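Sorry, explain these tokens?

___
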Amino acid sequence: MTLQSFFLLFITAGLMAIANLLMKGGIQHTGHPLSLSFSGILSVLLQPLYLSGIALVVVAGILWCRILSTDRLTVSYPLFVSLTCVLVAIGAMFFFGEKLTFHKVTGMGFVLLGIVMLTRP
């Protein structure tokens, strides 16, 4: 994987992480857990934060297709999922007050170590 490919993958993972945070914020903004009824789904779909998250998912999907067209899936997918996982955890701590325990931070350290190992030739 080239540095340019890794940069594009990092941007894609970042967009997906932001999208997840926006969608969670939109769901929380309704003031109640998501109901799978028509009115419950509609209340979430009308939330600007949620819609912004969906828009970023679309952009990330387009960038992901570019990555799929140029890089190996066996490297790209684990990197994408790992980076997204770490970025979402950090974002959840800042924006939703979620705790990053010692075990979570240690796990993220192992994930980052795995990222380094995957990017090596």
